[in-house]
Fold:
Amino acid sequence: MHPLYMERDDAVAVSAFAKLHQIRTNQWPMVAAWLLMSGFDGQALVSVAALDRSATAWDVEPLVPDLMSEIGAFSLDPNDAALILGATYAKVEPEGAAQHAVIRVLARAAPEFDNPEGWLSECNHAEEFLDCDCDADSAARADDLEHTLRSTVPLEITSGLADALTGRE
Structure:
């Protein structure tokens, strides 16, 4: 894989997780470190990577806009971001390992967007039926939705960055 292509996918993945508010304050230093290892550079990126994981939002959040600018972050529609998030989760855990993990994450993200449509709405609806036997077809629909979210976008990012974004490192 050409390094510039990988850098671009890394920026897309970070953009997607940021759009969906899925990068916690304590994750940013590791995300920034992986971006540096992928070839990105910039003062804010170095500053965030140098922070301890116990750094507070007061330390991290002011640097994030500059960090995003330094990596050439993409402005994504929430539904595009949902597919990229799904592809990233596919990198760190096999489908079925964590029961409908992508649906659950996106359902939690949906309220951040006023009356979301598309993938966020579908996940929000599907999540309501994941843990009940009240609809005989809901499990099959959820399996299909999870598969679609994980497999629609071909994404080439490092496993380390995927781990950092999903909180698995």
Q: What stands out?
A: The radius of gyration is 16 Å. Residues 3-75+156-166 form one domain.
